[in-house]
Automatic annotation (TrEMBL):
Highest taxon, organism lineage: Bacteria
Biological classification of the source: Bacteria, Bacillati, Bacillota, Bacilli, Bacillales
Entry-linked Gene3D superfamilies: 3.40.30.80, FAD/NAD(P)-binding domain (3.50.50.60)
Organism: Paenibacillus lignilyticus
Name assigned to this protein: Alkyl hydroperoxide reductase subunit F
Main enzyme class: oxidoreductase
Subunit structure: Homodimer.
Keywords attached to this entry: Disulfide bond, FAD, Flavoprotein, NAD, Oxidoreductase, Redox-active center
C-alpha cells in the first residue's frame, strides 16, 4: 500500500512522539486486504526505528496487534485502520510506546482498578465518524489494564462475520462474546456500563453558581465561555459535550473554518471551555427546573444544583417516526446515520424516510452503496434544495414516494420491509427491504421542563431577542429554542447572547 503523502507527513510527525519500542504482530493471507494491510504495516515500520514487525497467528486474518516487546497489550486491528480509524491507529502506537493518554486521572484510576477479564470486540466501518471514539476508548483501556483486550473489526473486511452476528449498525461492541452496546460511547459511558461509575458525591454539596449552563453543545460551550470571561462563578452540566455536533460528519459552513468534522469540533468545544474557570459536570442529565430562592436544577442522580441564573442549551435530537417496528428494530435494520451504517447495506434494498435536505442527501449517498433506495416523504413534494432533488431524480436505482404516511416497519429478528399509506387514495402498500434510515428532522430536548416555562407546541422554548425565557433569570439558546434556524454558528451566537443577558440580569438584580 502506498500511503497518501498527507497521511505519510502526519505519521512522520506523530511517530516522532513515540517514547518506547513497539512490536507489530501480523497475521496475513493471500487476499487483497491482507496485501494492503501488510503494505501499511511495512510503511509504518519503515518510518520509525522504534517499530518492529513479526509474523504471528492471530484469531482473524488479516489482522495485526500492537504490543510492547515481550508484553501483549491486547490491542488488535482486524482490517486496515485508515479512514476515520487512522487516528485510532496513531493513538495506539503512541500509547503502547508509553506516551501518556490525555484523559483525566479519575478515568485512569477507574480503568486500572477493573478486576477480571474483559475481551471487547468492536465492529466498525471506516466511514463511521462515531466508531473511533469507541475504538480509542477500548484501546486505551487495554493499554492501562492487562485484563482488558480489544479488537477493532472492519465490517467490510469480515462480511461473513458481520452477517452471522446480525450486525446492522456500527459501532457494535461485544464483550466476552455477548452484545455489549451500540452507537457512540465515550470512555466514561463504557466504564459506567461495566459498573465503574464516577463518584458523584461532590454534586450534592456544590455552592450556588452565578450562571449555570445546562447542555454542552455549541450554544452551551459558547455560553459557558462568555459567562466565565466575566469573572463570575460558572458551571456547565451536560449529558455529553458537543451534543448533536458529535453525530455530524462534514461541517463546511462554520465561518472561518473551511472544513471540520463533528467529533473534532466537539472535542475543541470542550477543550476551549476547559481553558476557563468553569465547573464542568459531564454525564449528567437534568430532570427538573424550579425557581425558589435560587433557580434549582435537579439531576437524574438526585443532586440539586442552585444558581442565580440558568442558561438552557439542551439542543435537539433526531426525531423518531413513532410507528410500530421502529423501536423494536433499532440497530437491526432501523438506522439514523447513513455515513456510519450505510456500508453494512451494500447490495441491499433500503428506504429513507424524509424528504428534506437530510433525507435526500442520505438517499443520494445510499444509492451508491445499496441495490435500491426508496424515499418516503409525507409532504406532497420533496422539500430538499432543488440541486439535491435534481441529483436524486437522476439516479436509476431510486424510487421517490411523496404524500405517503409511514405505517409500520416490519420484520422478525431484523427488518424485512416497510408499510405505508397513500394519502390521496388511502391505499396501504408494502415494500420489501432490509434497512430503513430515518431522516425526519429534530425534536428539542425540553420534555423535562414540563410547564415551568413557555414552550411552543413542538417543544421549543420561547425566547426574546436577548435569549430570555418566560421565567425570570432563566435564559436559553440553540436548537432547544424557537429561533428560526438550526445551525452551529447560530447556536454559538445565541449562547453568547444568553450569557451576556444573564450577566446583565445579575447586575440589575
Amino acid at each position: 500500500m502506498v500511503l497518501d503523502p498527507e497521511i505519510k507527513s502526519q505519521l512522520n510527525q506523530y511517530l516522532g512522539l513515540m517514547e518506547g519500542d513497539v512490536l507489530l504482530k501480523v497475521c496475513a493471507g493471500d487476499d487483497q486486504v491482507s496485501t494492503d494491510m501488510l503494505g501499511l504495516v511495512d510503511a509504518i515500520a519503515g518510518m520509525s526505528s522504534r517499530i518492529q514487525v513479526e509474523k504471528a497467528d492471530l484469531p482473524r486474518t488479516p489482522s495485526f496487534s500492537v504490543n510492547r516487546p515481550g508484553e501483549e497489550t491486547g490491542i488488535v486491528f482486524a482490517g486496515i485502520p485508515l479512514g476515520h480509524e487512522f487516528t485510532s491507529l496513531v493513538l495506539a502506537l503512541l500509547q503502547v510506546s508509553g506516551r501518556a493518554p490525555k484523559v483525566e486521572q479519575d478515568v485512569i484510576d477507574r480503568i486500572k482498578s477493573i478486576q477480571g477479564e474483559y475481551r471487547f470486540e468492536t465492529y466498525i466501518s471506516l466511514s463511521c465518524h462515531n466508531c473511533p471514539d469507541v475504538v480509542q476508548a477500548l484501546n486505551l483501556m487495554s493499554v492501562l489494564n492487562a485484563g482488558i483486550s480489544h479488537t477493532m473489526i472492519d465490517g467490510a473486511a469480515f462480511k461473513a462475520e458481520v452477517e452471522s452476528n446480525n450486525i446492522m449498525a456500527v459501532p457494535s461492541v461485544f464483550l466476552n462474546g455477548e452484545f455489549f452496546g451500540g452507537g457512540r460511547m465515550t470512555i466514561d459511558e463504557i466504564l459506567t456500563k461495566i459498573g465503574m461509575t464516577r463518584d458523584d458525591s461532590e454534586l450534592f454539596v456544590k455552592e450556588p453558581y452565578d450562571v449555570l449552563v445546562v447542555g454542552g453543545g455549541p450554544a452551551g460551550a459558547s455560553a459557558a465561555i462568555y459567562a466565565a470571561r466575566k469573572g463570575i462563578r460558572t458551571g456547565i452540566v451536560a449529558d455529553r459535550f458537543g451534543g448533536q455536533v458529535v453525530d455530524t460528519l462534514a461541517i463546511e459552513n462554520l465561518i472561518g473554518m473551511k472544513y471540520t468534522e463533528g467529533p473534532k469540533l466537539a472535542a475543541s468545544l470542550e477543550e476551549h471551555v476547559k481553558e476557563y474557570n468553569v465547573d464542568i459536570m459531564k454525564l449528567q442529565r437534568a430532570v427538573r427546573l424550579e425557581k425558589r430562592d435560587f433557580i434549582e436544577v435537579e439531576l437524574e442522580n438526585g443532586a440539586v444544583l442552585k444558581s442565580k441564573t440558568v442558561i438552557l442549551s439542551t439542543g435537539a435530537r433526531w426525531r423518531n417516526i413513532g410507528v410500530p417496528g421502529e423501536e423494536e428494530f433499532k440497530n437491526k435494520g432501523v438506522a439514523y446515520c447513513p455515513h456510519c451504517d450505510g456500508p453494512l447495506y451494500a447490495g441491499k434494498r433500503v428506504a429513507v424516510v424524509g424528504g428534506g435536505n437530510s433525507g435526500v442527501e442520505a438517499a443520494i449517498d445510499l444509492a451508491g452503496i445499496a441495490s435500491h433506495v426508496t424515499v418516503l416523504a409525507s409532504s406532497p413534494e420533496l422539500k430538499a434544495d432543488a440541486v439535491l432533488q435534481d441529483r436524486l431524480y437522476s439516479l436509476a436505482n431510486v424510487t421517490v414516494l411523496v404524500n405517503v404516511q409511514t405505517k409500520e416497519i416490519t420484520g422478525t429478528d431484523k427488518v424485512n420491509g416497510i408499510s405505508y399509506i397513500e394519502r390521496v387514495t388511502g391505499a396501504e402498500k408494502h415494500v420489501e427491504l432490509e434497512g430503513v434510515f430515518v431522516q425526519i428532522g429534530l425534536v428539542p430536548n425540553t420534555e423535562w421542563l414540563g410547564d415551568g416555562l413557555e414552550r411552543i407546541s413542538s417543544g421549543e422554548i420561547v425566547v426574546d431577542k436577548r435569549g430570555a425565557t418566560s421565567l425570570p433569570g432563566v435564559f436559553a439558546g440553540g436548537d432547544c429554542t424557537d429561533i428560526p434556524y438550526n445551525q452551529i454558528v447560530i447556536s454559538m451566537g445565541s449562547g453568547a447572547t444568553a450569557a451576556l443577558s444573564a450577566f446583565d440580569y445579575l447586575i440589575r438584580h
